[in-house]
Write a structure and sequence with these properties.
The protein is of the alpha/beta class and 191 residues long. The chain contains four helices and nine strands, in the order αββββαβαββββα. A hairpin with a 2-residue loop joins strand 8 and strand 9. Helix 3 packs parallel to helix 4. The chain starts with a helix and ends with a helix.
Amino acid sequence: MRNIENKKDSKLNKKILVIALIVLMASSTIGFIIGFGQNNNPKDEKLNYNGIDFVVNQNGLWEFKINGNVFSTVYNPYELGEIPLNITISSRDLLNKPLYYVVENANNLNAINEIIRNINVFIQRSQEVCLNAEFCRNKDLILKDCSNNIIILKNSKDIKIYKDQNCIFIESPLEDQLKIGDKLIFKIAGV
């Protein structure tokens, strides 16, 4: 009788072991496929633009170096070719000077944060200000004029980028502002 019970227990243990191995192998295969898919990111590459190497860093941003300064942007220059940026600006225009910005609403902050994070190596400091009553989301902010370096982000249906004295006006749909911000970073950095 005991011999029969031991055989049943042995068969049951073998079945449990086989099922456990199948589950382990299947989960390992699925984990490998998921992990492989994540590593097969189309941004997972290197590229060269105007003699400058761009590589995707651990945060998924395009990283490049110019004159020892490291920059990182969401987009690479090839992705932004269609955006018109016909203004003149360089790092020398901003060097050791404050950079002020005006945003229409908090949704515009992604683009301005991207710009400031990258050009912070050139500027003295950054601060939100008001340009005039039209461009002021918080009346408690100080008032500046275009004799100062100011970037103004405004939501608009069409893309319009222009410069008036030291003010750079970026009027565009919200979804394009980060792209325009990256294009401005490339222009300032000398890409």
